[in-house]
Amino acid sequence: MYSQESAEFAVIDVAESPDMVPALRHLLQSAGLGIDPDITHFVVAQQGGEWLGCAGLAGNTIKCVTVVAQHRGDNLSARLVGEVEQLAMQLGHFHLFLYTRPYNIACFKGCGFYPLAQWDDVAVLMENTPVGIQRYCRSLQPYYRPGSKIGGIVMNANPFTLGHLYLAEQAAAACDWLHLFVVREDVSLFPFTERLAMVRQGVAHLSNVTVHSGSEYLISHATFPAYFLKDSKLVNQTWGAIDLLIFRNYIAPALGITHRFVGSEPFCPLTHQYNQDMYTWLATADSASSPRIEVVEIPRKCHANGRAISASEVRALLTNPCLAALAQRVPGSTLMHLKMHMPAVSADKFLIQSGQ
């Protein structure tokens, strides 16, 4: 029988011990869960060589918490969460998030986590502080600007293209003030610091724009958990719901944002669906805590051949760079950044291919 005194906890580094992953996968599958590929560490509870449960860590997000059926209710989940929190702090992560099913809210409240955003009975995002989002919103207040039409844009800018610039210019022209957020998470070809610099340089001529360094409250699809949502369509819907609810209920009110601007998406089905979800979660869904936000979808800017400009096409061009092709797709500030930071772009062959 399990006892708190006899349980032992061990840390598994996934990169160093890939041979342990099949056993972890089997343990999670017994609870109807999968493994997200971004998990770097697991804490496992064991007794007499038997694994009783586990908890995973991906950056500052706790995932894949489970206990074998016969030991549920023994307070083992709380012990696992406590152990993985200690691990996270050792790795430098103090502000932690956790995604779970809403029926687990009471359990994780007992572990010191607080609900932040919830979509019906599908999923809830929790964090390990009752004041984290309020603290973030207070940090935004110095950037509040008065006006009857205050815009918001969220972009990854991987890299910043003429399409991103066109969207920002159109939105800025239509608003009293525009708040432009750059997604922080480093899951892109260009790291966050470079993407932020490209955006700031690219919109420096717009006098009514504030560029915000993205926060942990702007959620990247690349790191959104899928371990308890088996259907990929449901994963995408849940990501959109949680991300947009946080924007509507917290970020937009802090800055007085009344309109959310987005470029049309002719290429990526996932991004296109996210754009459509904006109408549901920002413009039409009822909310007791925040007003509706008007969604403005602007047709994507095209280059000379009539094809819509996309960051993915720019990234593809970088494998065999050509100045003339890049210049049709990115502003001069981004082109300078590429030449400074990417050896292939600044190499002699680059200038020869471009005819310069």
Summarize the structure.
With 356 residues, this protein is an alpha/beta fold. It is 38% helix and 20% strand.
Mind explaining what this structure looks like?
With 356 residues, the chain is an alpha/beta fold. Helix content is 38%, strand content 20%. The protein has helices at residues 21-29, 76-90, 105-109, 132-140, 162-174, 192-202, 232-255, 269-284, 311-317, 323-327, 332-341, 343-346, 348-353, and strands at 8-13, 41-47, 50-58, 61-67, 97-100, 114-119, 123-127, 150-155, 177-182, 209-213, 259-263, 294-298. The strands form two sheets. Strands 1-2-3-4-5-7-6 form a seven-stranded mixed beta sheet, with helices on both faces. It has a five-stranded parallel beta sheet with strand order 10-9-8-11-12, sandwiched between helices. Helix 4 (132-140) packs across helix 7 (232-255). It is globular, with a radius of gyration of 23 Å. The chain starts with 7 loop residues before the first strand and ends with a helix. 37% of the residues are buried.
